[in-house]
Amino acid sequence: MNTDLLLTGISQLATALSPGPKHGTAMGEVLVIPKAALALRAGRIAWCGPQSEWRGVAESTVDLGDRAVVPGLIDPHTHAVWAGDRLSDFEARASGESYESILLAGGGIRSTVRATAAASVEELVALARPRIAALTASGATTIEVKSGYGFTPTAELTSLEAIAILAENTPARIVSTLLIHIPPEDASLRANYIAGVCDELIPKVATRRLATAVDVFVEKEAWRPAEAEQVFRAAKQHGLAIKLHSEQFHAIGGLELGVRMKALSIDHLEACGPQQVEAIASSGTIATILPGVSLHLGIPAAAGRELIDAGAAVAVGTDLNPGSSPLYSVANALALAVRLNGLTPKEALAAGTVNAACALGLGGYGCIHAEAPADFLVLHGNDWRELVYTLGANPVAETWIAGERIAP
Ligand code: NIG
Ligand code: FE
């Protein structure tokens, strides 16, 4: 076999056994190859295995110096495009105010909407670029970015345009989602707003290919399941996938709706009861948990252990946003999922790679195997478990996307 580049000196190569969703106990099945090598050709993996078994010819060889390699991480849930800050909320919450009461009083998400709607597309791109760079340096090779702080159709389109510019100008693979986040404060305007989303915004987004999925925040202080259902019907009519923010504070039927409508993923899940755990575990929908939110808001952590034991395919994301999760590292999100949600290190690896890929409809990503895109990480350490063990410092030494080393 001829190859462009052979990477040797890999102390351990750790990866899910195959691409595609891993449910329940399959999440713990990780392949660890000691003393491995990895051959790259034209941006893809040409071969991987024990170094002693390599028989091909390489144009060049790089010795990684006895360091571990894992697949590139996939962050399936971020709100990386925003303006303004939420430092006053943070301080108020530290003095006892709740996230929901701040939102009800017109602050929280609504204050970020005011700042974001006032920003130009250039300003939004400039603000988001270092956030994407931080995620990439900490191991994310594919990153989902949502709109949702625009509120008006024009401002939502501006956020999606910013995401499109970021996708063109950053090495990370960017997946864009239209988020229908919060309703108008005047309840009499809700139906009209939903009609505008279904009849005008979604068709425009689909025609301009500005997003591949539509997400709705289903919650007491946000949208009701019946309203979300209308949005999802419109999304599907226009060929877009669907996702939900649901069961963050209350279980009001969002999860059941998402499962019934075959959502790609349902995200948050902190308020799931046994019935919701069972419903998502016996479905094809990915259960995306966001431990940064539990840490930052002090709300109960989603029942990751119970979800996996019931047979769910669990993914983990940063939920990077200014209000509920200012977390700029997917590796740290996985580390928190082990501590807060009860995942094992192997399950966390599956959650941050193959399952996170499926949460974005990218079933071929997140696994190191011959023919896969050459998206992988070189760690500082020689044991892959440092990826989910390390807190604070960055365990990722090098991020490679499509066969190119892009960070640091
Ligand atoms: O994923 N829960 C709703 N939306 C975001 C938070 C957005 C914000 O607080 O600005 C979330 O937690
Ligand atoms: Fe979110």
Task: Describe the fold and architecture.
The protein is an alpha/beta fold and 408 residues long. The chain folds into 2 domains: 114 residues, Urease, subunit C, domain 1, CATH 2.30.40.10; 286 residues, TIM Barrel (Alpha-Beta Barrel). It is built from 15 helices and 15 strands. The chain has an 8-stranded parallel sheet. Strands 3-2-1-4-13-14-15 form a 7-stranded mixed sheet, covered by helices on one side. Helix 8 links the parallel strand 9 and strand 10. Helix 10 crosses helix 12 and helix 12 crosses helix 13. The protein is globular and about 70 Å long. It starts with a strand and ends with a strand. 55% of the residues are buried. The mean pLDDT is 97. N-(iminomethyl)-L-glutamic acid (NIG) binds next to helix 3.
Estimated share of beta-strand residues: 25-35%
Number of domains as seen in the coordinates: 2
Low-confidence stretches: none
According to CATH, the homologous superfamily of the largest domain is: Metal-dependent hydrolases
Strand sequence of the main sheet, in spatial order?
5-6-7-8-9-10-11-12
The radius of gyration computed from the alpha-carbon positions, rounded to a whole number of angstroms, is 21 Å
Oligomer: single chain
Helix content: 25-40%
Number of helices: 15
Give a concise summary:
36% of the residues lie in helices and 25% in strands. The protein has helices spanning 87-94, 99-104, 109-117, 121-137, 153-169, 190-207, 225-237, 254-260, 274-281, 291-297, 304-309, 330-340, 345-352, 354-359, 386-389, and strands spanning 2-16, 30-41, 44-50, 57-71, 73-75, 140-146, 173-180, 213-217, 241-246, 265-268, 286-289, 314-316, 376-379, 396-401, 404-407.
